Each structure stands twice: as C-alpha cells, then as structure tokens.
C-alpha cells in the first residue's frame, strides 16, 4: 500500500512539471532560435599585430552567447576571410571548435588555414610579407544538436602577419593510390606542375572498382576518413559502404582522379575529385594547334589502353590531360617506355630542356598507346 501511495505521489508532483513545459513562462522558458549573436571587437586589435609565426601563441576572441531563451551548452566555430563579405568559396572554417565564449585560437592553426585560403583565392600571388587585414566571424550551434545555428557579426583584425614557414606539417611530394586498377599495389599520383598540393592520375576502373589513397605508400586512407571530401564529376556512382571503407565506383570507365591536399591546423584536409579522363595530342604533330581538340583525343582500345589518333605531321610529340587547368601543368611524355609527367620548366621542347631520352619523335601516321594503370606507353608506326 505504501509503495502504491508513493507512486501516486510522484505522479502528482511530476504532472505540473510537464504541464509547465507547454507554456513559455519566466520560470520555465522554451528554446527558440537566436536572432542576434555578437562577436566583440578585440580591445587592442587596431594597434596590435598578430604574428602567426610565433609558436605557442593564441589569438583571443570573446563573444556573447546567442539568446536561445535560456542558457544552453553552445559550440562555436571560427570562420576567416580576406574580405568582409564572406562569399561562398572565399572563406574557411577552422577545424577546432570551442565551448566557451572566451575563445583562444591556436596561431599555427589560424596561420595554416589562412595559407590554404590564400592559395585558393589568390592562386598566382605570393603570400604577403607585410601584415594584412583578416576578417573573422563565429558560427554557433547548440552543442550536440542541429539546432541554434547562427552566424555572428564580422570583426576585422587589421594587422595579421601570415607566416609561410610557420607550420611544421608540409604537403607531401606525391600522393599515392592503391586499388583494383593496380592489383592493390601502390602507384604515385603526379604533382600538378607549378601548383603545390595538387596531384593527378588517370586510371581505368572496372564496374565496382575500388581504391584507397595515402600521403605515403601503405597509409590506406579511405572513404570514411573525416578529413576527406569527394566530388564525383563523372557520375561514377561513388560510395564507400564496404567493410574496408574502400572508395568504390559502381560504373567502370576511364577516370581522372585529382587530389588537393592542404595543411589545415595540425593535420591534412583532402579533396578528391573523380572526372572523365580526357587525354590529348597537342602541338606540332596534330598540325601545330596548341588546344585540346576533340579530334585529337585518345580513345579506348578495348584492351585496357588509350590510343591516340594517327599523327598528322612530324615533330616532337606533346601530350596532356585535361584537368580543367593550363594544359602544360598536366603534360607528360614517354621515357624508356614509361609515362613521365612534366616536372620541369619547358621553354622550347622536351629534347632541348630535358634531354633526347624524354622526346618522342613523331612521324605522320604514328600512333601512341598508353597503359595508365601500369604507367607505360609505346609508339606504333
């Protein structure tokens, strides 16, 4: 009887609590989305130079918690840009997040993020040696939830000294691939000539072909890596649902795999793009035209190779891969029967600037056959 009475008593005491939750009162406020979120101007920003090359230092920010109707655990992310508009593609969000309104940004992480952003929005311009303006805003969200997302106002740090030498982590010389196209042996992705942190490789993948990647041979990074973004520009049907987290394409074919590897804070960030593979003859042997023309595109032989059209004229054979950038950044030749990717400044031609062994002497009617999976090639008269 006492037990039954206790149950009734608990129910009686609990009922008003749930009833109170149905109304928004001062004693029992309800959550609502915030309409204002203030990032305070740093007190000494106007007269302070933030030198991001000094190890162990931080950049201090302070904000007011968004008004969600009552105090709630909040997570803050930092976004940075070189102009106050924060247009899509022209800003970055740092990897570190914060759960306190007093925010201490690691200078090394901020520096590496700004270096990455600079290379994106100012691709052909060196990182400035003088202090520049950096714009900052915060993004808040209720911790562990998908609600409460709000952006703060923008503040300017007018004197930020970016250091090109501050990070001890550097982009690798090569990226690596291993998969069904190489019988799971490791092959290199060639660096894009003149663009640090960008790599490429043409491969043929069968239906449901799979691969992994790495910054070094044997690293075995895959679909579920939290640092990886995959862009499928070939409608290849990319997935990674197998137990080994291999990157899989449901539709077989010739693909260009490109990778952008950036240093973000104390770690890497990877953007892997899969596009249709388009390989071309260019220059003297196709009639002196230095454009990637459809009639000079390599075609599938049906035997695991790509074959060029018959050359139209004599001269040095020049070949390239269409990666949506200058053709000469993804140019290649054959050296001793192996595909050799451009890694030097060519002013005149391969023979003059690299040596005769790097030069293919084209003749009318000659055909070039390439096995990109094996990294080899040959000529046929």
Describe the structure.
The protein has helices at 2-20, 107-121, 350-353; strands spanning 50-51, 58-62, 74-81, 91-98, 102-106, 132-142, 150-151, 155-161, 175-179, 186-191, 198-205, 209-214, 228-232, 238-239, 247-249, 253-264, 267-276, 279-282, 299-300, 306-307, 315-316, 318-321, 331-335, 338-341, 361-362, 367-371, 376-380. It is mainly beta. The protein is built from 3 helices and 27 strands. It is elongated.
Which ranges are low-confidence, i.e. pLDDT below 50, for 5 or more consecutive residues? Answer: 1-25
List the secondary-structure elements in sequence, H or E.
HEEEEEHEEEEEEEEEEEEEEEEEEEHEEE
If strands are numbered along the chain, what order do they take across the biggest sheet? 13-17-16-11-10-9-12-15-14
Sketch the major β-sheet. Answer: 9 strands, mixed
Task: Quote the average pLDDT.
Answer: 90
Radius of gyration: 28 Å
C-alpha end-to-end distance: 103 Å
Structural class, from helix and strand content? mainly beta
Number of strands: 27
What level of helicity do the residues show?
under 10%
């Amino acid at each position: 009887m006492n037990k039954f009475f206790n149950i009734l008593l608990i129910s009686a005491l609990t009922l008003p609590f749930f009833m109170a939750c149905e109304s928004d009162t001062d004693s029992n406020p309800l959550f609502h989305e915030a309409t204002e979120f203030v990032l305070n101007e740093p007190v000494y920003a106007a007269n302070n130079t933030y030198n991001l090359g000094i190890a162990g230092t931080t950049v201090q920010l302070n904000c007011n918690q968004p008004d969600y109707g009552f105090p709630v655990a909040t997570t803050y992310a930092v976004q940075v840009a070189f102009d106050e508009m924060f247009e899509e593609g022209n800003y970055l969000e740092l990897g570190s997040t914060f759960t306190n309104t007093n925010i201490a940004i690691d200078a090394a992480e901020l520096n590496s993020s700004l270096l990455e952003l600079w290379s994106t929005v100012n691709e052909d311009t060196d990182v400035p040696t003088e202090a520049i303006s950096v714009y900052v805003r915060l993004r808040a969200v209720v911790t562990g939830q998908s609600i409460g997302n709000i952006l703060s106002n923008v503040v300017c740090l007018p004197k930020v000294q970016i250091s090109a030498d501050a990070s001890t982590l550097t982009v690798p010389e090569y990226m690596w691939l291993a998969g069904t196209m190489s019988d799971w042996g490791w092959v290199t992705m060639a660096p894009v000539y003149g663009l640090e942190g960008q790599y490429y490789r043409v491969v043929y993948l069968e239906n449901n072909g799979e691969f992994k990647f790495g910054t070094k041979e044997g690293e075995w990074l895959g679909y579920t890596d939290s640092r990886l973004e995959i862009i499928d520009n070939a409608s290849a049907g990319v997935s990674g649902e197998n137990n080994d987290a291999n990157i899989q394409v449901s539709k077989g074919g010739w693909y260009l795999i490109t990778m952008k590897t950036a240093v973000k804070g104390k770690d890497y960030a990877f953007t892997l793009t899969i596009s249709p593979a388009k390989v071309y003859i260019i220059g003297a042997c196709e009639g002196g035209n230095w454009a990637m023309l459809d009639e000079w595109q390599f075609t599938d032989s049906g035997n695991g190779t790509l074959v060029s059209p018959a050359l139209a004229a004599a001269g040095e054979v020049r070949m390239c891969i269409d990666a949506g950038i200058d053709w000469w950044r993804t140019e290649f030749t054959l050296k001793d029967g192996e595909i050799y990717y451009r890694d030097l400044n060519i002013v005149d031609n391969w023979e003059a600037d690299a040596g005769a062994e790097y030069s293919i002497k084209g003749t009318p009617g000659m055909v070039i056959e390439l096995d990109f999976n094996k990294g080899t090639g040959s000529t046929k008269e």
